[in-house]
Every structure is written in C-alpha cells, then in structure tokens.
Amino acid sequence: MRIKPLIPVSDGLAYVAPALVWALAWGLMLMAYDRISLGNLALLLVLANAVASLWLRPLASLLVSSVAVSLFNWSFVPPRFTLTVDLSEDAALLVTTLAVSTVISYLMELKRQAADHASTHQMQVRMAQEHVHSQQLRNTLLTSISHDYRTPLTTVMSSASVIAEQVGRMPTERIGQLAEVILDEAQQLHRMTNNTLQLARLDSNTMNIPMNWESVEEIVGTVGARARRTHPQRRIDIRLAENLPLLRCDAVLINQLLDNLIENSLRHSATDKPILIHAKVYGAALALIVEDQGCGIADAWKERVFDIFQRVEASNALADGHTRRGIGIGLAVCRAIAQVHGGQLQITDTAGGGTTVQLTLPLSEQPEQPRELSE
Q1: Which one-letter DSSP state was computed for residue 367?
Q2: Residue 272 CB coordination number (10 Å)
C-alpha cells in the first residue's frame, strides 16, 4: 500500500525525507555529545522519531524507532559501543524513549486516518453538490428549451404551413413577409443553440482556446457589418481609437461575445435609437464597449444578468411591441468568454438612459513587426 504522508511531498521525497531527518538528527547528536547530557540527546532522538512519523506508517515507524534506540545505546550510552547498560537510569531512559516514539507513531496514524476520512468526506460532499447542480442545470435547461425553443419553432412551422397550403394563391408580398418571419425565428434558434453549445464547451474546462494576434479594427468591423446586414433598419455606429494595439485572443469567441452584446442592445432598445460600439486603451488593457439608449438595467440586476438562465423581469415588452426572447444564457456565455481571455465584463448606465456593457481585456506584449525586405 502506498504511504500517504501527512506533509504532502513528491513520491521520491516521501521515502527520502525520513532518512534525511535521521541523518540530520544523528549529526546533531554526534556534535553535541560532549556538550549536553544524555537525556537531552534522547530528546533529539524523540524529535527525530516524531518528524519521521509524518511520512512512515506505525509499523515502519516502530521498527525504525527500535533500530534508532539500539544505535543510540551503542553510540552514546555507557559503556559505549556495546548494547549493555550499566546504569538503571540509562535503561529507563531508553525504554521511555522507545515508548514515547511508539505513542507518537500511533497518534500520527490516528491523525493520518482522520485527515483521510475528512478528505474523503469532502470529496463525497463535493461530488454530491456537483451532481445536484448538474441535475438542477439539466432540469432548468430542459424547461427553458421546452418553452423558449418551442415558441420560434411553432412560429416557423405555422408560417411554413401557411405558405405550403396557399401556394399559388398568396400574394408575393405576403410570402415575403412570412419568409422574413421564418428567417428571423431561425436566426434566433441558431443564436440560442450556439450560445448553449459554447457555454457547455467553456464550462467543461477541456476546451483548448487557440490564441492568435488579431486586429481589433477587423473584429469590430466584422461584427458591426454583420449586425447592419441583419438589422438594416437600425443605426449602428462604430468609433475606434487610433493606433489600437493587436489583441491576443480567439477571434471567433470575441466575435460571438460582441454579437451577443449587440443583439441584446438591439432587442432592448427602440428602433429609432442608435447602438454605439467603440474601443479604447486603458493603460495595459483594451476596452470594447457597447452602448444603447434602451430601458436600462436596475442596479440589483447588473451582476445577476451574467448568471445562467437569468433574465431581467422588469419589463417583458419592448418599445416596438415585441416580446423578449431567449433562455437567458447570452450574457452567461459572454462572461465565460471574457474569463477564458483573462478579462471581465461590467454593466453601467448610459448617460441619458440606457445600458453600457464594457469588456476589458488585458493587453499582451506586442509582437515584433516583420522588417521590410530591402531591395
């Protein structure tokens, strides 16, 4: 059976440590033989036995202690270099030393067993908590999916059924309207599915994040252009500081994070209100900021909205009459993406009303720019 020491060390030191303790103790006793009494030398012996017991099992510790007491008798107890003992006081000292070493070994074993039991109990409690959390998460996810996925699916099926049943009789304009409804609901389903899968991958702690040097201008420009194509009726402004440094990140994840933030701003603000995306440098960090002029978020919800399946309950209807959709994982995914990049998300109020979400990412030392080849 593998020895489990009370003091955690590497496997090699778990066997070498007792030998080192004894070598040190024996050296001290040899140097102090002519300076201190035999009883004080025996205290050094007891101390070495106690320290060695941290790594040794009781039987091994008792065996080592017996050998140590015998060597102590041979080396220091008169007559020296024999196993005989002339004085009864010295014999009592040897017996007492061996008895104390035995008691210490037994107590160390009890302590070791108690530590093992506590560790096992903590592991069982942690596994039980993880199981309960997993069950709660699964039940909540299933409940959310059964509701929030069913709504767009029902809309898609209903619109498609109308087109199929009235093909040839329905005006082209009406078909176009229903097609837009199907496309919008399909995009919503695609977004919810991507967020759900991404959150599961990031929470598994097994995802290898490929970090590359990326241009902030390209990332923000790509996200902004996609948002303008998806919502051509909305005004989306982009303001970037000059000479922004390169960002070491996973561009796909940062794109998804900004997509979620922009989508939230679009859905929680009126159609005549602009969305502002801008980037700037704060010392050794880069800030990517999405501002809207919507209904805002109460202070009590500014942290809770980043928790999974949390949605602000203050208002279920937007200014344009549409209802809020989603299963409450968009901002949870954003926070997970920020954390794997060593960054953080913060929500504040926009001046004049609305919500400002700031993503702060640490800047790494910039790569050397390749030198231009001379002709």
Answers
A1: P
A2: 11
